[in-house]
Amino acid sequence: MIQLYKMAWRDLGRNRRRTFFSMLALAVGVALLLFMAAFIAGDMRDALQTSIKLQSGHVQVRAASYDEDKTSLAWEDLIEDPDALAAQIAARPEVQVATPRLYATGIVAAGDTSTGVRIVGIDPGSAASAPFRDGMVSGDYLTADDRGGLLMGRTLADKLRLKPGDTINLLANTSNGDVDQQDFVIRGIYSTGTPGYDESTIFLPLAKAQAISRAENHASLLFILLKNQDQTDAVAAALQGPAYQVKTYIQLNPLLNEFEQYASVMMYVFYLIVLGITVTVIVNTLVMSVFERTREIGILSAMGMRGGRIMAMFFAESSLLAVGGIVMGIVLGSLLSAYVQKYGIFIGDFGMTGILIGERIHAYLTVKDIVTLTVMTFVITLVAALYPARLAAKMEPVEALHSGK
Question: What is the model's pTM?
Fold first, then answer.
């Protein structure tokens, strides 16, 4: 076996330029696929973490009859005395924070312009509200006792041409099915880096949201963040009870999970397509090598080298090309992925229904993707060498000696 690889190394060195460009072609294909895998993984990872941070939490506790799609404010669909239940859950060692939130639908009217929004009542001082507090762009943050102010997303404020200190009229649905309205002052403008979310969400202190929606001492759900994401299922199981429904972030982001599975399948298809195109360069290199070494192959056959060993020699050449191309590709792909992981790619306001996508997408290269692509590339390259190897092995010694170089 060692002798075969020595011969393969010597044969590849005969035309170093062609060998280098064959490896380079394979390396570019591997690098491109690694970057695409890292880009998709980073997109899914960022979207999931953004959803957990802004919308779903790791776990949510709701009233048994609560229907998120209807944004029900009927008291029987809400959690009564949510602060007491939140304090009880927050006392668990796995829980980082548990806080009540109230959701309602409404319309913001500013001058002749109006738009639908989602009203979220929050505890401004809670650690779960940090993304909005830390994301303040201008103006002041909310206080728990503020009865006339709200926070507005930068995307929505730009759309309505509003700034801190401006007054808007807010219409909100109520628990008895009516609509209430009140003038509010925009205390501040926030940005979460997720334009789709910022355009549709305004924040009120929980007490004020309960008052305008007539929900009194009720909340839509308890928003729970954990110290360790891996404990989600265990915590959810511990909180289960007949009076409440408990949802995990996986259950609350079904579209994201379905899209991730679909993307994984498509990536394997794309692997095969790109690698199939790339390895044609390897096939071409080996076929040219066969015709350039026809006389040499004839001499080896005449000396007693069997067809299987001749095939093995070409498989050895193919494996060396594969190793060189894979190593170069992993280096190039890893460097590109590391750059995009650090700085991201700005995509702006690219919204997708059911998925929160930020302004920037960061790559995330995993060991699994590297191993998967390495194995696939190596196997496909060896399979591609089958034709030139068989071509060389089937040569008749007499004919080979009287033709070729």
Answer: 0.78
